[in-house]
Design goal:
Blueprint: E1 3-6, H1 16-22, E2 28-30, H2 47-58, E3 63-66, H3 78-98, E4 102-105, H4 115-132, E5 139-142, H5 155-164, E6 171-176, H6 177-183, H7 190-203, E7 209-214, E8 216-217, E9 228-229, H8 237-245, H9 248-251, E10 255-257, H10 269-278, H11 287-292
Parallel strand pairs: 1-2, 1-10, 2-3, 3-4, 4-5, 5-6, 6-7, 7-10
Antiparallel strand pairs: 8-9
Helix pairs in contact: 3-4, 5-7
The protein binds zinc ion (2 copies).
Length: about 300
């Protein structure tokens, strides 16, 4: 299986590869810029080649980028709305250069007014990105916990957005397990997972699902609160993850951790190994363990 995590790309995206290797990740996610900044960046000459070569050598794929948190395609504020469009275009440009498989984004917020009130605005924003920029990785709309009127609290909401864009094939979905539970999908049992996947398939088609954000949740079912927990330490629990990892559709996708980490340092080998164990896979030993076992 493809199990990895969000890693820092500080110092250049090629630096994300050794960081992924250090936690035995075989897929990953990065930010190109600070997640709370509209700053523009360029990839220095030679960096994308170093990145793709290293990923090829170590078989770490696919990679996605997470868009900045400031994006709000529903915003009535022209500056925020325009910046959101430009930031997504920047990420797709860089993502194309680096050969990424998707740009994950939080679509925006209707601030409690309901999706219908802002749908034309959201559609116009996504249309602007896709029409000005035919090429580039797909935009992966992330399911959200629904806090503060965040758009994407259900697959049917995301389905409305994608349908309104003519089912453009450059749009997909990212399933964050913490957000899904908090949004009200009971993914703690095989039955609940089947119900969720059925709804996803009816609303969007299951092939729209391109990535999993594998996070346990500090808050319970339908809490509408977004707080990630380490695998097995939250309300999804080990049994929930075992059931998720056993699902045929979900197993084919990249699983990307955004967990706090055992030492608070972010996604780590310990959390990756928890998923591998629950998936029934062999664990990759830490190099420290491997050497210490030699007498
Ligand atoms: Zn996210
Ligand atoms: Zn996420």
């Amino acid at each position: 299986m493809r199990i990895g995590g969000h890693v820092s790309a500080a110092g250049g995206i090629h630096q994300a590869v050794p960081r992924a290797q250090a936690i035995r990740a075989n897929c990953g996610q990065i930010f190109f810029t600070g997640p709370t900044s509209w700053r523009s960046v360029q990839l220095k000459a030679g960096i994308t080649e170093q990145f793709t070569t290293a990923c090829g050598n170590h078989d770490i794929r696919p990679w996605v980028a997470h868009a900045v948190y400031l994006i709000n395609l529903a915003s009535a504020d022209e500056r925020i709305w325009n910046n959101s469009i430009h930031s997504l275009m920047l990420y797709r440009t860089l993502g194309l250069q680096a050969g990424l498989s998707g740009i994950v984004l939080h679509t925006g917020s209707h601030s409690g007014a309901g999706l219908a009130s802002v749908l034309p605005r959201v559609i116009a924003g996504l249309e602007a990105v896709l029409s000005r920029q035919p090429e580039g990785p797909p935009l992966l709309l992330e399911i959200c916990a629904g806090q503060g009127g965040a758009i994407g609290v259900s697959f049917s909401e995301l389905g409305q957005v994608i349908k309104a864009l003519g089912n453009d094939t450059r749009l997909g979905i990212c399933l964050d397990t913490c957000h899904a539970l908090a949004a009200g999908y009971d993914i703690r049992t095989a039955g609940g997972i089947t119900t969720m996947i059925d709804e996803l398939d009816r609303s969007l088609g299951v092939e729209r699902l391109r990535a999993i954000h594998a996070n346990d949740s500090q808050f319970g079912l339908a809490s509408h609160r977004d707080r990630h927990a380490n695998i097995g330490e939250g309300f999804i629990g080990e049994a929930g993850f075992a059931a998720l990892l056993a699902h045929d559709v979900l197993r084919q996708l990249p699983w990307i951790l955004e967990t706090p980490g055992t030492n608070g340092s972010g996604p780590d080998l310990d959390n990756i190994n928890r998923l591998r164990r629950l998936a029934g896979e062999e664990l990759v030993p830490d190099s420290k363990d491997a050497t210490s076992s030699i007498p």
